[in-house]
Structures are given as C-alpha cells and as structure tokens.
Amino acid sequence: MHRTTYPCSNLMVEIGDHFTKKLDRSRAGIGGSMHKMMSLLETRDKELHEDLIKKEIDPTFFGFRWITLLLSQEFLLPDVIRLWDSIFSDKKRFEFLLYLCCAMLMCIRSYLLS
User: Fold this and answer.
1) pLDDT means per 10 residues in the chain (114 residues)?
2) SS3 helix, strand, coil % of the chain, rounded to 5?
3) I want to staple 28 with a disulfide (CB 3.0 to 4.6 A). Which of 17, 41, 92, 97 is the partner?
4) CA-CA distance, 55 to 11, in Å (whole number)?
5) Using an 8 Å Cβ cutoff, are 39 and 97 in contact?
C-alpha cells in the first residue's frame, strides 16, 4: 500500500457521511454539520445568526460547498494548503472546519447585516 493511501482512506472514512444521501438530514450527515456550524454562529454572534434566519438565508447555499470541499474553492491554493495543514493536524479536524466556516461568516458580518 502506498504511503499516501492510508491517510486518504482515513480522511474519506471521516468525511464519508457528508457524501451519503441517506444521511443528508441526519446529525452525522452534511445537514448535521451545517446545523452545528449555525449553532456555533448563534453562540458566537447571535445578531448575525438571527439576521441570516430573518433573511431566510439557507446555510446550504454556502455551508454545503465550504464543508464538502474543505474550503478549497474559497481561497488560493497556497492558502488552502495552509488551511488544510491546520485542519488535518487537529484531532477534531471537522469541528475545527466548522469553526473556520463560522469565522468566515463573522469576517463578512457587516456586509451580511447590511
């Protein structure tokens, strides 16, 4: 087995539930991850969270892409590599990813609230 096969296989086992249609709306699936991301936002910035709900901005519009693609479409490759290094080195890597997603929303807070 090639040295890179094992880590990639482990990663797919960890994130695989996000790609299983039957789990989409469960706590283990992508819907659960987006719910956790929004719950984090609610505890960190209640005003922004309530505003997104009031404006009926579905977290699927941004959260699905951010979580399933591990932010790879949002940044330039050198930045993605740095982010992935941080994500994959964290024992709670996908919880850390949700914190990053929450932070991204908070970084554009003034834009979203206007």
Assistant:
1) 58 54 56 90 98 94 91 96 91 91 97 95
2) 75, 0, 25
3) 17
4) 35
5) no
